[in-house]
Give the backbone structure.
Amino acid sequence: MTEIKRGSRRYPARSAAVVLCCVALVASACSSSAKSKGSAGSGSKKGGLIGVSMVSQQVARFVFEAKKIKDVATANGDQVIENFSNNNLQTQISQIQSMMQRGIKVLILNANDSKAFTPLITQAQRKGVKVIAYDNDVDAKVDYVLTRNNVAMGAQQAQSLLDHLPSGRVAKVAIIRGDPATPAEGEMGQSYDKLIKNNPKIDIVYDTTTPGWDQATAQKEAEAALQKDPHLDAFLCMWDNCAQAVAQALKASGKKPGQVWSTGSDASPASLTYIAQGWQGQTTWTAYDVMATDAANIAHAFITGATPPKKDATSPSGAPVLNPPLTSVTKANLCQWIKKQMPPGWTTTSQIFSGGAVNTCG
């Protein structure tokens, strides 16, 4: 099983002007926090209040991660305020301001917009609040960044496609990228362009982006690609919802499971089932349980004055970066991933091997 460090999903940029106005209105209401002394991971129960701000409750992984953060934080002796903004920038700003008024010492921020939070982050840090950018970095120097390596994830996807090219002829490939307004799309695209775009063994017959990472749009693009060339060998998709959309398009066009390779990311339950059935070729698992645990432990280290874990890299703004492990999951190693890496609560073996999929895991 191949493992590489890193990954993240971003969201379309919005105006920072809203944030500037909101911060100005509530700056005086934000309370400062003082560090308590202790040692993260040493069993110290002298904790503090952590704010966890996630972009959407409709995305299963964010619900899973928020629960994991809370469970680990509680075990560390910390308390958690947890909010979901449902992809609404103003809602997320308002929720964070409320957290600051309630005296959080650390903010774990899964930002709705990578550009719009600079004023709010600056205000929080002036009040003594440590900020951990979670899943995606922001255009401000936070205290720590937890995110996957999107370049590495794009390379895993591209390599899985290369490993499944037809022999003896040039393969026909369609590429469906994510939202071009987000850093993740560009980072994954670097690997696509390096490994696939100018590869003499590949004929790219369709290449498009998908504003908002919208699944319905991805399905329309998949259908258009199949109309342009019904003999496609593979779809290079950046995310699982796209791969699921491709599966629907393949079914509608009369294809059979395993006939067309497709890639994705997140190892979402629906995509794991499609892999078991043969409708999706690959997905990249980001160890979200590890990333959530790291977030809670780093927050506790900030609260207690302990030393955070050693960084994997440094962000453009100079903040330490920690990347979770990545694993490429295909039908060939699906059982191994289920037995050794799938965290409790993610999905079930019976759910994965449903809809006619044969359980080969014993």
Q: What stands out?
A: The longest strand covers residues 202-208. The chain has a mean pLDDT of 88.
